[in-house]
């Protein structure tokens, strides 16, 4: 019974990590779009609505690529750290 739990724990931790990054990848670019649009482009620079929306979308796409890159970097590094299975004789 305990062996079954030991096998489930790493899977659950992987699931938690994937869910956290999925939420991060969805929420952060959307928040960055509205934050940059309202405070920077509409508030400080006083651009026209269409222009500020285009620039905010560009910022959101850049933020999206950064978050995806962070996820890929973490997944790659965890794959290298994982112990290699030993062959049984």
Helical proportion?
A: over 70%
Name the overall outline.
Answer: elongated
Q: What is the count of helical runs?
A: 2
The number of E-state strands comes to 0
Strand residue content: under 5%
Distance between the termini: 26 Å
- SSE arrangement, N to C: HH
The main β sheet shows up as:
none
The secondary-structure class comes to: mainly alpha
Radius of gyration: 20 Å
The average pLDDT score comes to 86
Query: What are the low-pLDDT stretches, counting only 5+ consecutive residues below 50?
Result: none
Could you please describe the fold and organization of this structure?
It is a single chain. Helix 1 packs antiparallel against helix 2. The chain has helices at residues 2-44, 49-81. The protein has a domain at 25-78. The protein is built from two helices and no strands. It is elongated. It has 89 residues and is an all-alpha fold.
Task: Name the features.
89 residues, mainly alpha, 2 helices, 85% helix
Layout of helices and strands, plus pairs?
Elements (H helix, E strand, L loop, with lengths): L1 H43 L4 H33 L8
Helix pairs in contact: 1-2
In short:
The protein has 89 residues and is mostly helical. It has helices at residues 2-44, 49-81. α1 packs antiparallel against α2.
């Amino acid at each position: 019974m305990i062996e079954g739990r030991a096998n489930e724990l790493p899977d659950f931790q992987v699931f938690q990590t994937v869910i956290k990054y999925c939420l991060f990848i969805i929420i952060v670019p959307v928040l960055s779009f509205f934050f940059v649009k309202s405070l920077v482009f509409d508030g400080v620079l006083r651009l026209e609505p269409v222009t500020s929306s285009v620039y905010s979308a560009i910022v959101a796409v850049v933020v999206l690529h950064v978050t995806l890159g962070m996820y890929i970097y973490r997944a790659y590094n965890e794959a290298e750290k994982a112990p290699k299975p030993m062959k049984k004789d």
